[in-house]
Write a structure and sequence with these properties.
This protein has helices at residues 45-57, 74-86, 103-116, 135-147, 163-176, 207-210, 257-263, 268-275, 278-289, 301-309, and strands spanning 15-19, 62-66, 90-95, 120-124, 152-160, 185-190, 205-206, 229-232, 237-239, 250-251, 297-298. The chain has 331 residues and is of the alpha/beta class. The strands form two sheets. The chain has a nine-stranded mixed sheet, covered by helices on one side. Strands 7-11 form a two-stranded antiparallel ribbon. The structure holds iron/sulfur cluster (2 copies).
Length: 331
């Protein structure tokens, strides 16, 4: 199914990710959403279903269900998978596989999901997750997914900038635990966290260095490439990429998704990032609003986005209610 959500020139979003809960058995320091055992936020089912329907109407054909740990909201996870599959959508589940305590347990859990129509599954693997989750559980989950014939299986790393460790983890899975990962896709993204100021693991780049897209800290090879995914947060906030470091572009309780996307056409700041990159936005803000983003050092583009948008003055820069933004709505 082809995406058809853009009345003008704004990129076609091809994927919508639902953060259904912040609850997780662990508290990884680099967690995008600062999830953990003490977090109880859950996406209301009515809101999730209403948003899913809007996404379907926009012909966005792929939906990702994650958290936090989606297995801790198993009913909502199942309901969303069933509904999205009934809409003819491809569903991706992202999980840390803490539940895969044995291969049998993994087979039991994943065979239920397979029957519901889930075909794509992704498992997180990096040194932060491995502080809490034994690699044997990733191995159990992978083996079960392979045995059950999942169509698309991915390992999601966040070690870019620290690739030696990631390579060793993959080596361990293959050579020590004997898991055949020939047909498993490997994705390794830059390591960024909400506690980015405390993240000293990555080399830090000046803005000039960061602007070179061949740099391993860039999540995209060309401008706009990372703005292809809608992220629906537990509270209804909508973000235009795979994490919440960038500013929110609206909230599903205030606007429908179609209007939220349409309004991006008129948001000057969004257009700067989309047509160039966050470095250009940093330069523009320094020039027009007397900020000092160009003088700092960053681990990656995402960290730069985080530094810009987690600043209280710019949190809503990409929404049309911000005083610096433009206001335009569809009928
Ligand atoms: S396991 Fe994943 S969702 Fe849970 S705290 Fe760690 S990064 Fe966040
Ligand atoms: S946070 Fe910024 S740089 Fe990172 S993926 Fe999102 S838009 Fe791209």
């Amino acid at each position: 199914m082809e995406s058809d959500n853009t009345p003008n020139s704004i990129p076609n979003f091809y994927l919508a990710t639902f953060i259904i809960t912040y609850k997780c058995p662990f508290s990884c320091p680099m967690c995008f959403f600062s999830c953990g055992p003490e977090r109880n936020e859950v996406m209301p089912k009515e809101m999730a279903f209403k948003t899913l329907e809007e996404i379907r109407n926009l012909k966005i054909s792929t939906v990702c269900v994650t958290g936090g740990e989606p297995f801790l909201q198993i009913d909502l996870m199942h309901d969303l998978i069933i509904k999205a599959v009934s809409y003819g959508m491809t569903v991706i589940l992202v999980t840390n596989a803490f539940w895969a305590v044995s291969k049998e347990a993994a087979l039991e859990k994943l065979s239920i999901l397979k029957k519901l129509g889930l075909k794509w599954i992704q498992f997180s693997l990096d040194d932060q997750h491995l502080r809490f989750i034994p690699i044997s559980r990733i191995a159990n989950a992978l083996e079960a997914a392979i045995e059950l014939g999942f169509e698309d299986i991915k390992i999601l790393g966040s070690s870019k900038g620290n690739t030696g460790k990631f390579k060793y983890q993959l080596f361990y899975l293959e050579k020590i635990l004997g898991i055949c990962i020939d047909n498993v896709d490997i994705i390794d993204r830059p390591h960024v966290s909400n506690q980015y100021f405390e993240d000293h693991e990555q080399a830090k780049f000046s803005l000039q260095e960061l602007e070179k897209t061949e740099n391993s800290a860039s999540p995209a090879n060309k401008p706009g490439d990372c703005l292809t995914e809608l992220l629906i947060d537990v509270n209804g906030d909508v973000y235009p990429c795979c994490n919440n470091f960038i500013g929110r572009i609206g909230n599903v309780y205030n606007n429908n998704i179609k209007d939220i996307i349409y309004n991006l056409n008129y948001n000057h700041y969004f257009n700067i990032i989309w047509r160039s990159d966050p470095c250009k936005l940093a330069r523009y803000l320094d020039k027009t609003l007397n900020t000092d983003f160009c003088d700092k050092r960053y681990g990656s583009w995402c960290e730069l986005c985080a530094q810009i948008f987690q600043n209280d003055s710019f949190r809503d820069l990409l929404t049309n209610t911000h005083p610096y933004g433009c206001r335009k709505k569809t009928n």
